[in-house]
């Protein structure tokens, strides 16, 4: 069951990249900026946000549930399974259990992570040689997210998902009722 994630006091900031042209395709994929996750993933995100706030930071969400239709758009743009899950196999985003995010100051300024979101290069790997401040920030994000119940993938410092993905069905925009994609 997907639930919509809203901004508000004590909540992560929602800055969905795929609702803008500020993403690897350089064009909007979603027709609106609405953020959805499975209930369990939303609860884990809340735990991570509470831990971030306890150290004077906030989470900034760039993507969460991604309908299968959107996964195909990304795959057609960059058919590289290192960074984009093949939509035929499905992705954790398409199950509503993944979130792409960064750390920011309380007023929403992203911290230095060594690369931007959607930088599909070796520099985005968790273990990539990045400046010390970026390494520190990546490790803080990793600690917050894993403590909250998420796991990471090695190739994207910004991606976290719940384990046991097979427990959750792959969803299209219509099946999820999210109305993110153009009809």
Give average pLDDT, whole number.
97
Principal-axis shape: globular
Radius of gyration: 15 Å
| Contiguous helical run count | 4
How far apart are the termini?
A: 22 Å
Name the CATH class. Alpha Beta
* Approximate strand percentage: 15-25%
Brief overview:
Helix content is 25%, strand content 15%.
Describe the 3D structure:
The chain has a single domain (2-176), classed as Muramoyl-pentapeptide Carboxypeptidase, domain 2 (2-Layer Sandwich), CATH 3.30.1380. Helix content is 25%, strand content 15%. The radius of gyration is 15 Å and the shape is globular. The chain contains 4 helices and 7 strands. The model has no long low-confidence stretch (mean pLDDT 97). The protein starts with a strand and ends in a 7-residue tail after the last helix. By secondary structure, it is of the alpha+beta class. The strands form 2 sheets. A 5-stranded mixed β-sheet has the order 2-4-5-7-6. Strands 1-3 form a two-stranded antiparallel sheet. The active site is at 156 (proton donor/acceptor). Its cofactor is Zn(2+).
């Amino acid at each position: 069951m997907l639930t919509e994630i809203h901004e508000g006091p004590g909540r992560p900031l929602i800055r969905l990249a795929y609702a803008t042209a500020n993403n690897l395709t350089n064009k909007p994929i979603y027709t609106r900026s609405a953020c959805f996750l499975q209930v369990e993933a939303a609860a884990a995100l809340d735990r991570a946000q509470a831990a971030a706030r306890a150290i004077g930071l906030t989470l900034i969400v760039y993507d969460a549930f991604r309908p299968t239709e959107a996964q195909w758009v990304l795959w057609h743009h960059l058919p590289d399974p290192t960074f984009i899950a093949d939509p035929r196999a499905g992705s954790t985003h398409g199950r509503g259990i993944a979130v792409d995010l960064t750390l920011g100051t309380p007023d929403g300024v992203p911290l230095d992570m060594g690369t931007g979101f959607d930088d599909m290069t070796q520099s985005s790997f968790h273990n990539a040689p990045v400046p010390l401040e970026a390494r520190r920030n990546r490790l803080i994000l990793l600690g917050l997210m894993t403590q909250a119940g998420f796991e990471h993938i090695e190739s994207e410092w910004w991606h976290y998902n719940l384990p046991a993905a097979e427990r959750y069905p792959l969803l299209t925009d219509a099946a999820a009722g999210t109305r993110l994609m153009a009809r």
